[in-house]
Amino acid sequence: MNAWIDSLKTKMKKKVILPSLAVLMALSLSAYEIAKPVNSAMAAPAPAAAAPALDDNSIEPLLALDRAMESVAARVTPAIVNVTVTSKTGGRHDNPDMGDNDSDNQNDGSNDMQQSNPFGQFFGFPNMPNQRPRIEHGLGSGVIISPDGYIVTNNHVVEGAVNINVTLGDRRVLPAKLVGADPLTDLAVVKVDASDLPSIPWGDSTKLRAGQTVLAFGNPFGLRFTVTRGIVSALNRPNPDSNRRKPGQFIQTDAAINPGNSGGPLVNAHGEVIGINTFLISGSGSFAGAGFAIPTQIVRPTVDNLIKYGKVSHGYIGIGINDVTPENARFFDVKKAEGALVSQVEPNSPGAKGGLKTGDVITAIDGQPVNDSGELQVVVGQKRPGTTIDLDVVREGKTMKVPVTLEAMGSRNGETESGNAQQGKPRWGVGLQDLTPDVRNEVQAPSDVRGAVVGNVQPGSPADNAGLQRGDIIVEVNRHPVQSASDAVEQLSKIVKGQDALVLVWSNGGNTYRVLHSNQG
pTM for this one? Predict the structure, then answer.
């Protein structure tokens, strides 16, 4: 019995001792962790001290800027309106926007009347998508320019409208009627029956400078009465449209302009309208840092005519024009890279009747200097048909006066493509072919165009660098008219190695001068 009791005591001691050893080991490890030296790289960060509050004196310039912008926004916002449009289009979906470049006309599709016939294949009735009109809803922006309800917006916002409603800053929704629209400048005026409305004054866009602060107002994505801030990124940007008669001179800004902003104003720090937002350039269709506005030097006279006459008649000379550049100026005996270079004169046009010729450089109109082709286009387009203008022209190094009586602007079309070629001088990297009747028909060139058709362009060549493309027609080489591919090859061959070539090219319905820089190798 004593032996059994001793054995039991031994077993009980083991059960008690084993846990005790475990506890002791754990305590020892904890003690080791506490006692071991602290690794500074792994130590927990000490709580950061609270940053001292910024006093108003240290940020006063920022606060002053904020107050100034708030004042401008408070002054302008009441004059901003939301424009909603119900429009009827043809049987196809003909949204009037500019693809990725547009800034409004969001079609919600909620009242789309154009439905395909799902039963046609069974009952023998084919789908006829062009038989019924399509009802669409679009939205844009506008700005009140007079207390009696005249509102400026874009033509593409209200184009085709059968119903126009305007939402004011006080949330009233009023019907509006179209006073007039001008597709060429993309401007329109609508009017609401109201009085004592908030309005904002015109500013002078000719006084703008790159870097100047501007604010863009509108209703992007249907988010009403939005303001964005930025600067004037650049001035006098050219017309990106394929219609060469549309004026450019756009204001470029980094103030965010998005779909729905079209027709809203771009204003200066005085709260004056200096432009009407019209489009953006973006790969996604949303703002990417480059928005564009029509300057008031174009907007104001156009709006005045729309209010007074309901339409705008634009003056027309009937010439194609390019900028005078440092690289082409020497070919026309002009000392400065200023003025508008005449690249084409249409037969029986006002310019032809007045005596203008291809290669003339227009340096002034009615005594006012012309800096570039865009400026000439704007000035002429604002004059009424029947007006006689006096042009200062440099021709072959001599200055002369050319009077031209303007006519009303019309329209024209033109596209180009081409086929195979016969190689010209290898150093230019361009293959040429004769302008046969079949080729003329293929590239849709007018009957009065003569020259050599570009059949292929070698990548990286002088022709490629100058922008020549298949289907272009070389009309002149170094001011010498060419009638065929062999003529063009001969003229290009005469150019001394190392010298550049000036070519007059017909493309997309008009002529442009290009400089081919000679390959030295």
Answer: 0.62
